[in-house]
């Protein structure tokens, strides 16, 4: 099937053909046969690099009205926006900023790219463009099974289908164990394929040999290791070197930020692909110790990528790799979650990661996502993915990852915090005003599809009682309504638990002596909420943070002896202290050095604090209270 045979304008056909897209890949042709260009609903469960983006574009370009493209990550939103913006005659908008921003102008675009949280927020706030949608594409739909993010995506899709009954839905996914369940839920045709434009072989390294799943072997020369050398790291270095020396690029995945930086430093010693100009460009993005380390590694053709990097550095690394200016990226698994950075070889050194309690195996789906990055279309004749093991683990790695199917996608909607959030949203948005009404709304969720025997009204009843105790819902007989606090909490897109904590903090502030209410007070309130990212609190810091908390105890809304659990509150105090010092002029480099926090972590805490302080100010209005510190600190956080 050829592009010029599709119902596209001459300008679009010319655009695709000029980019080398003339013939459809088999999965793309199957999607056309399933009706994707004729308003049909389709779930495409196909490997990375098999043409999912073109399937999405085809649906959106042939839809009879505006289209929405939902992504899980802002980095992926930026990438897709830039891709769609190149389509001739197509107006593209993007929505990934502050949750409470006015998005009315988005309705003027042909395509809107947004995170699921932004779409959920738009629905809650009655954005008129939502009801004019003709087509919605969901990227990475397997993230329905992710805690936190999954329930939001699930409710967003359920609500969109109710608001726009004739909506075309196209869901894109990696290969998972139960794509038919997702297709059945969405009343969509399933297009399932293992076809890739570049063949992929996956194997396990042990004893200087990689054994692949196609019954081929690869000998790898690993120099003798000394007593202080890590054998897995040296094997990884040898595998990376081998790929680069033959003209390929490589992704090396490790378990943590520190390991990513350490591996990059080790590879930099090899001078794989000198790129001094790239190092200079990275230097110009701003100086922190981490940034300088990145630029020095980049001069040798090696980069690293993790959430602790500033966003500008992460984007620069991704772009440099795509432009083939970097030979290697050492990364944590988050890089595999959608951003387009294909390589000839992927090396997965670590298959376990620390989850807070113990070292646990990485999910099969995550490993398959990493492996799927191997093979650059139009650049490589093949792709290779190698898991680094040893003689003792080789067989287990094969069974666990190489020959195993990815996990099934199961709904996480029954999580208590997710239920509280979405019950409040449904009532506050006017979609339901009774237990049975809420249950009816939730009957369209993936959770209800997977668990048809669950009594949804009974599930909702307990949550309604909790929300009533939080003063976020009123219950009068069988009628449910959001209180003023509940409506504002939902509108500000904070969780009910966060809303209740902020309200408690505001009421405590009203009872405090004026001289004790400071910027620290405002920051402690918003940092001690589940919507603020956790900040690592090391053993050596505990005593210092304890002393800091004692010395400023009069300024905090939580008494030290009442903090429960105390460790979580002390962590919130650390975050508040970092943000306070930021408002007083400390730069990122000082904070990174002083608190062992990544520059990207500082950026993300500042951003979330701005959002939460804005929500706190809005909740003050709902309480007819005035805490100017919320507004004042928010203004100081902005550069």
From TrEMBL:
Keywords: ATP-binding, DNA damage, DNA repair, DNA-binding, Helicase, Hydrolase, Isomerase, Nucleotide-binding. It is an enzyme of class 5 (isomerase). ATP binds at residue 28. Residues 33-194 form the Helicase ATP-binding domain. Residues 231-427 form the Helicase C-terminal domain. GO terms for molecular function: 3'-5' DNA helicase activity; ATP binding; ATP hydrolysis activity; DNA binding. GO terms for biological process: DNA repair. It catalyses: ATP + H2O = ADP + phosphate + H(+); Couples ATP hydrolysis with the unwinding of duplex DNA by translocating in the 3'-5' direction. It comes from the Archaea. Its EC number is 5.6.2.4. Gene3D superfamilies: 1.10.3380.30, P-loop containing nucleotide triphosphate hydrolases (3.40.50.300). Pfam families: DEAD (PF00270), Helicase_C (PF00271), Helicase_dom4_arc (PF21280). Belongs to the helicase family. Hel308 subfamily. DNA-dependent ATPase and 3'-5' DNA helicase that may be involved in repair of stalled replication forks. Monomer. This is ATP-dependent DNA helicase Hel308. It comes from Haloferax sulfurifontis ATCC BAA-897. The gene is hel308.
């Amino acid at each position: 099937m050829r592009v010029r045979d599709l119902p596209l304008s001459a300008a679009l056909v010319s655009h695709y053909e000029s980019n080398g897209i003339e013939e459809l890949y088999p999965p793309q042709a199957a999607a056309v046969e399933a009706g994707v260009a004729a308003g049909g609903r389709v779930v495409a469960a196909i490997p990375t690099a098999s043409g999912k983006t073109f399937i999405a574009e085809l649906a959106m370009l042939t839809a009879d009205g505006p289209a929405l493209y939902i992504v899980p990550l802002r980095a992926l939103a930026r990438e897709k926006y830039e891709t769609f913006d190149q389509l001739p005659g197509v107006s593209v908008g993007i929505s990934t900023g502050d949750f409470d921003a006015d998005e009315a102008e988005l309705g003027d675009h042909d395509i809107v790219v947004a995170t699921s949280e932004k779409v959920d927020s738009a629905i809650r706030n009655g954005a008129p463009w939502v009801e004019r949608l003709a087509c919605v594409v969901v990227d990475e739909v397997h993230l329905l099974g992710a805690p936190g993010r999954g329930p939001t995506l699930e409710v967003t899709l359920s609500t969109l289908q109710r608001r726009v009954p004739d909506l075309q839905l196209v869901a894109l996914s990696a290969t998972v164990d139960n794509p038919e369940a997702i297709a059945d839920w969405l009343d969509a045709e399933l297009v399932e394929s293992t076809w890739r434009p570049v063949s992929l072989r996956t194997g396990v390294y042990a004893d200087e040999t990689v054994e692949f799943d196609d019954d081929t072997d690869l000998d790898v020369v690993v120099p003798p290791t000394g007593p202080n050398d890590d054998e897995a790291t040296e094997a990884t270095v040898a595998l990376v070197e081998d790929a680069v020396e033959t003209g390929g690029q490589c992704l090396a995945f490790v378990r943590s930020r520190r390991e990513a930086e350490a591996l990059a430093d080790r590879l930099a010693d090899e001078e794989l692909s000198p790129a001094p100009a790239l190092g200079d460009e990275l230097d110009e993005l701003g100086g922190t110790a981490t940034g300088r380390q990145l630029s020095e590694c980049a001069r040798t053709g090696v980069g690293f990528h993790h959430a602790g990097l500033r966003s500008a550095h992460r984007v620069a690394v991704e772009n440099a790799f795509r432009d083939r200016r970097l030979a290697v990226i050492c990364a944590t698994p988050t890089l595999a979650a959608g951003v387009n950075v294909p390589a000839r070889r992927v090396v997965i050194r670590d298959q376990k990661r620390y989850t807070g309690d113990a070292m646990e195996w990485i999910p099969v789906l995550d490993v398959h996502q990493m492996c799927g990055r191997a093979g650059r279309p139009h650049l490589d004749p093949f792709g290779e993915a190698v898991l680094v093991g040893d003689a003792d683990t080789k067989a287990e790695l094969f069974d666990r990852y190489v020959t195993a199917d990815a996990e099934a996608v199961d709904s996480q909607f029954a999580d208590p915090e997710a239920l509280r959030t979405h019950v409040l949203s449904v009532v506050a948005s006017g979609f339901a005003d009774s237990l049975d009404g809420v249950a009816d709304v939730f009957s369209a969720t993936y959770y209800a599809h997977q668990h048809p025997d669950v009594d949804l009204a009974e599930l909702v009843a307990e949550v309604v009682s909790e929300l009533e105790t939080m003063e976020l819902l009123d219950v009068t007989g069988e009628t449910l309504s959001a209180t003023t606090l509940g409506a504002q909490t939902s509108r500000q897109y904070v969780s009910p638990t966060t809303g209740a904590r902020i309200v408690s903090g505001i009421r405590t502030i009203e009872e405090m002596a004026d001289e004790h209410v400071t910027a620290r007070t405002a920051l402690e309130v918003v940092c001690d909420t589940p919507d603020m990212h956790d900040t690592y609190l090391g053993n050596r810091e505990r005593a210092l943070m304890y002393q800091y908390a004692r010395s400023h105890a009069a300024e905090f809304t939580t008494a030290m002896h009442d903090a429960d659990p105390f460790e979580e509150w002390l962590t919130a105090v650390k975050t508040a202290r970092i943000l306070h010092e930021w408002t007083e002029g400390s730069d990122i480099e000082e904070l990174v050095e002083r608190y062992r926090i990544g520059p990207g972590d500082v950026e993300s805490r500042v951003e979330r604090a701005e959002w939460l302080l804005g929500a706190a100010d809005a909740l003050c209005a709902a309480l007819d209270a005035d805490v100017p510190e919320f507004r004042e600190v928010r203004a100081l956080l902005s550069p």
